[in-house]
């Protein structure tokens, strides 16, 4: 009989998705709660602290006070530092982050390569080897011309630093320009000891197949990732890109509509019901602070009740005014 129970428990349990939510309050109190895997603060005023589960994201929030973003799992969480990488792990899940400064030469290529190499080294020694979702924030993302644009340099360094770890496919991702400390690259990720399922958007060319005009090294990301139990979809940065082209230059309203259409296409491809809800936190990255109120009103009208964090961020193509990423729980 005991044997039977053990066999039942040995069935491969699929990892339940972390709970991700925006919350007001003190980081210290959230860190003291059971199962806290990550606490993100936003903007220069945020000081979530030195704990490896914490990261101060260099993006200003248009709403004050900026809430915390909290990731929690149903497990005991351990945490530590390995070189420059700060990490927390529990219940098969891993949060890892790294911040690197470019130094005087100011080229995100080498910095991104180094950051990814260091993350890769930490992942190599752990059970949580499936990187499902990555966020990348760097400053002056649209500076430089042609292949020298900083975003394109970042893409080259990211791909080099990823090496062959992502040979089976890329994680879902976001890459956004911040207005914080010059030369600072922030990369953080969610990984699991079980694989997710990549989702592409049939309305869009997969980013890794973008034509040459977007740079020597196309961006290394999947449009979305279903978590192992298919109980949540991690949605990459999504903008008004149709095919491989940017749509609706200089038209914020049309870009927002196109972005929502892309988000719905992703949900459909993931086999999820349409729409977003109060459990599904999103982020809207807005290039021009003067557009924040319009974006807030649009999303309140079109996605009522959905928690949206409105952040000041530059999209990696100059003509794009807004980008949305986030989560949809099944
Ligand atoms: C796009 O669709 C918009 O380089 O990691 C979105 C999501 C974008 C992720 C990245 C870039 C990235 O191409 C840009």
TrEMBL record:
<dbReference type="Pfam" id="PF21168">
    <property type="entry name" value="FkbO_Hyg5-like_N"/>
</dbReference>
<feature type="domain" description="Chorismatase FkbO/Hyg5-like N-terminal">
    <location>
        <begin position="69"/>
        <end position="191"/>
    </location>
</feature>
<dbReference type="InterPro" id="IPR049368">
    <property type="entry name" value="FkbO_Hyg5-like_N"/>
</dbReference>
<protein>
    <submittedName>
        <fullName>Pteridine-dependent deoxygenase</fullName>
    </submittedName>
</protein>
<dbReference type="InterPro" id="IPR035959">
    <property type="entry name" value="RutC-like_sf"/>
</dbReference>
